[in-house]
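EI: anyone free to look at a 205-residue chain?
SC: sure, send it
EI:
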Amino acid sequence: MIALLDYGSGNLRSVHKALVKVGAEVRIVTRPADLANADAAVLPGVGAFDDCLQALQKQELLEATRQFIRSGKPFLGICVGYQALFERSAEFNSRMAGLGVFTGTVVRFSENSGLKVPQIGWNQLEEVRRECPLFRGVPEGSYVYFVHSFFPKPDDASIVATRTTYGETFASSIWRENVYATQFHPEKSQLVGLRLLSNFVELAR
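SC: here you go
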């Protein structure tokens, strides 16, 4: 059973639909007790870093999420759910601390690149760690769908699973032990995204 954390994120339903499509049993979770029997968990997200963290805190899901990650069960963060895994964000002079699973800061794309911010649309993955289970069967150079102005800069380069370039090169996904996270949206990335979600579901079995 995959726990899908519901704190009011706009992409919750599309993530739910995609997980069900790849054969997952999904439970929408709004309180810590609902995480107890989950085999894996997904933290989706669109919008602002602070809004995500404040909503999780209000529902007492912040510490519950940390405890779930420490349990060693598979965990997937998507977009803002990826950013939330870090210590802090530069977004709107954020005062909220992140989950702190990884050290590093969430930063904004440079305005000097000549490219539109946010990045909206398809962009390419460069595999850094080909052994990452999430990308099994995903061809090098695959295109996935992004909607974001901010991205994490991990202090530890060894956790970076893929990179993507949009004016500057950034960590488009990470992996360490049981924790996986993507800046792009698998639920909007058609066959590549469904393969990635299917791989995640297999990790929970």
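EI: The longest strand covers residues 168-176.
SC: 👍
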